[in-house]
Model the fold of this input.
Amino acid sequence: MEQICRYFAKLSSQVLKEAPLSKARSRLGLSMSVSLARAAAVGIGWLALSTGLAQPLPAAIEFAEAPTVAVGTAPEAVVKGDFDGDGDLDLAVANNGSDDVSILNNNGRGRFSRSATVPAGDGPSGIEAADLNGDGRVELAVTNADSGTVSVLVNNGSGGFSPGATVAVGEYARGITSGDLDGDGDLDLAVTNQFSSNVSILLNSGGTLAPAVNVSTGAFSFPSDVVAGDFDNDGDLDLATSENPGLSVRENLGSGSFSDIPTTAVVAEGPTAEVRAGDLDGDGDLDVGAASDLSFGGVGTLTILRNSLVPSLP
Done:
């Protein structure tokens, strides 16, 4: 099996290598591997992990091309959600060039049609779907890079949206995530501000977003994306951000407050862009992965932080 894995790794020009943590004092046992990957479609594909193990991927996985749906100008981000309450997942697309959001309705068979176009702010860059006012309907929160704001689009219950509150954040707002950061039962927001090198925390109280509280990510870190997850298994949501260069994790200090100093940080080969969290190795802990940001000098890497929780130091 090892020889086969090496063969396919060579065929796909995939390089795996390890890099050390830049922060030794860490409650989170996170390690990083960086790979330069080019997928090869060769019957049965193989995914080589940083552990040295490989698992076969089913050869029968196929995706059929669906009809193309026109949206706005320069679409930059997309999010899914059941916007009309019919049990099917619809799509919303943030259009950076036309300063609006396209709503794509699902007909129940995976076919989409544009049902509405809703104005947003100046230069939509990121989008999140979340029930922000607790009415059981999914709202949309849109980061507007050029105006440094977040626009909330309120769901009317039938799949339509109308402009709601606009909240100021930082310079060149990009990534956005939602979660109950302060444990009060409402979904809050966290937004990365690339040019001001910080993350804006927008705490939600019954559907009203409080003014932004900014958490620094370090000078010239240029964070582009953020994801919330309970990385230390203490019951509250922490934040992982993709930065220049690499990734960092900040623990929730309670009530939705975060330290400027990351709990864990790693250096990658250039700036990273989109970041995602999930249990990648099946050990019950949330791991983190981020793709490199080619628009800001990235070199085509995937940075992975594998979480293996270690006891806190006394």
